[in-house]
Design a protein that fits this description.
With 266 residues, the chain is of the alpha/beta class. The protein has eleven helices and eight strands. Bound molecules: phosphoenolpyruvate and manganese (II) ion (MN).
């Protein structure tokens, strides 16, 4: 059954011409220096359209770094002002939405753990009523297309028309080459059900390591996905979160140069 979402084309809210949308930045904002320096290096590649950084981090187990919190928004705003790049972050509560918007965050995303929880998604959707901001919705951690669609619908019904999905893979008890199984068939089904919905690939969270990223990123492009969100850190070896999967801005630049993007879509 075809689903309908009342959305506007990606081009109308982020025009990259014939190129894919590239979102990049550290998994987490750690310090002002780390965030701002990484942002400058990414901006200098000339290949990044939007910065990413987690301010509030949903960790699977307690006792780990859970994000720098609100103070990071000030650093992030500085990164935006100095580089001229728009900024994006994950929101998981109504308060996150309010604080992020007040700080000038340009694009919000809903993380995989939140997408799996309809109450959380509804709380975020309610906080977005009357706001005109692009929202990206990651697939839920578990391979459930309905949950993903449900989250897209909840946010869309709140009036958000600048909407895109992020394919970040699905967790599995089995250990494979991937941190999160891509399960491309679920992404294909989403594209078939909602052809007008832009889909952006997150090779970093699918792979869980740097080495596999080029293969997943190329496959995403070959499957008509319209962009990438890639974790990039000034010094991945000392990253506070997701160290194994982050790439330096230079490595990201090289990676992007080696990808072929065949499809110019609306
Ligand atoms: C992230 O983007 O850093 C993140 C926490 O991702 P996910 O929600 O896909 O696990
Ligand atoms: Mn991460």
């Amino acid at each position: 059954m075809k689903q309908t979402l009342d959305i506007v084309p990606l081009k109308s809210w982020f025009d990259t011409g014939d190129a894919p949308l590239i979102i990049a930045g550290p998994c987490s904002a750690e310090t002002e220096e780390q965030l701002v320096a990484t942002a400058h290096l990414l901006a200098n590649t000339g290949k990044v359209n939007v910065l990413r950084a987690g301010i509030w981090k949903p960790r699977t187990r307690p006792g780990e770094f859970e994000g720098i919190g609100s103070i990071g928004l000030q650093w992030y705003r500085r990164a935006k002002e100095e580089t001229g790049l728009p900024i994006s972050t994950e929101v998981a509560t109504a308060k996150h939405v309010e604080e992020a918007l007040a700080a000038g965050v340009d694009i919000l995303w809903i993380g995989a753990r939140s997408t799996a929880n309809p109450f959380t998604v509804q709380e975020i959707a309610d906080a977005l009523k009357g706001v005109d901001v692009p929202v990206l919705i990651k697939n839920p951690v578990n391979p459930d297309l309905s949950l993903w669609l449900g989250a897209l619908e909840r946010v869309n019904r709140a009036g958000i028309k600048k909407l895109a999905a992020i394919h970040r893979g699905f967790s599995s008890y089995e250990k494979t080459a991937f941190r999160n199984e891509p399960m491309w068939d679920i992404a294909i089904q989403l594209k078939t059900l909602v052809p007008e919905l832009p889909v952006i690939n997150d090779p970093s969270h699918i792979c869980g390591n740097r080495e596999l990223i080029p293969y997943i990123a190329q496959k995403a492009f070959d499957m008509d996905m319209q962009g990438l969100i890639v974790e990039s850190h000034i010094d991945p070896s000392v990253a506070w979160t997701d160290a194994k999967q982050q790439v330096t801005p230079q490595a990201l630049s090289d990676l992007l140069s080696n990808l072929t993007y065949r499809h110019a879509k609306s």
